[in-house]
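Retro notes, item 3 of 5
We never archived the inputs for the cobalamin complex last cycle. Fixing that now. Sequence and ligand:
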Amino acid sequence: MGKKEILDGLKKAVVDGDEAKCKELANEAIKTGVDAYEAIMEGCGAGMAVCSDLYDKGDIFVPEILMSAEAMYAAMDILKPHIKVEDAGKSKGKVEIGVIEGDMHDIGKNLVKIMLDAAGFEIIDLGRDVPIDDFVSTAKNEKVDIVAMSTLMTTTMPGMLDVVRGLRDKDIRENVKVLVGGAPVNEDFVSRIEADAYAEDASKAVKVASKLIEELRGR
Ligand code: B12
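Structure as it came back at the time:
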């Protein structure tokens, strides 16, 4: 089976929520030397993006999207140990990542976590629906380098501002970089809440996080 066939097949298997097919194709990717990183981003991630669009159009519903997420996780479990990120050695740092209080959407956060982990970052996963204070106290107690926050809902975006304020109140804002992501978030929002950076997807998150670590260490 060729590379294109495997990547397209993985994408389709995620959309179809076909866990068995996802596992089969992930194993096939490894066997035939397809880059695991590419398989995750262009197979699994691309499939999940299609699911989001189909959901928005009303073509699929909650049960289907949850099956797709399960199928994607099954493929990623197989692919993850095989990821090689080129500059992994250069910019390791400690990252706490979580989904803001009130928000249960964690599929995107999990994808970002896996890619950061594979790139050599030390990850503290706070999970989803994370209270503001947990972000702040973990940043302080664990001396993290990056506070990474996700939200998929407009209603929970203000929580990100509360975390930035909390970091300031505890006098640790200068010690950390604040990275935000999720569909409703953008560059403009970063400046409004005085965060440090935004990344639109998991592969960009790795690049941006590496840059933030360089900035932090270069001070
Ligand atoms: C799947 C889904 C669900 C699932 C979530 C399952 C789970 N465990 O995550 C379930 C069914 C539970 C759900 C529930 C709800 N949902 Co919903 N859901 C979605 C859906 C269809 C897809 C989201 C998704 O997983 N996408 C795939 C992932 C891979 O993409 P992603 O999350 O965007 O992540 C990528 C980037 O954003 C980025 N990224 C993400 N996080 C981070 C973090 C950092 C630090 C960085 C750098 C980057 C980054 O990288 C990721 C990977 O490339 C979206 C619609 C959509 N088009 O997005 C609605 C959507 C987010 N849901 C919505 C709503 C309203 C709800 C509910 C309130 C519905 C209800 N009435 O019950 C509840 C909320 C419950 C709660 N309190 O959270 C709305 C939000 C509207 C708004 N603007 O606020 C949306 C937009 C649908 C819509 N059009 O109305 N939902």
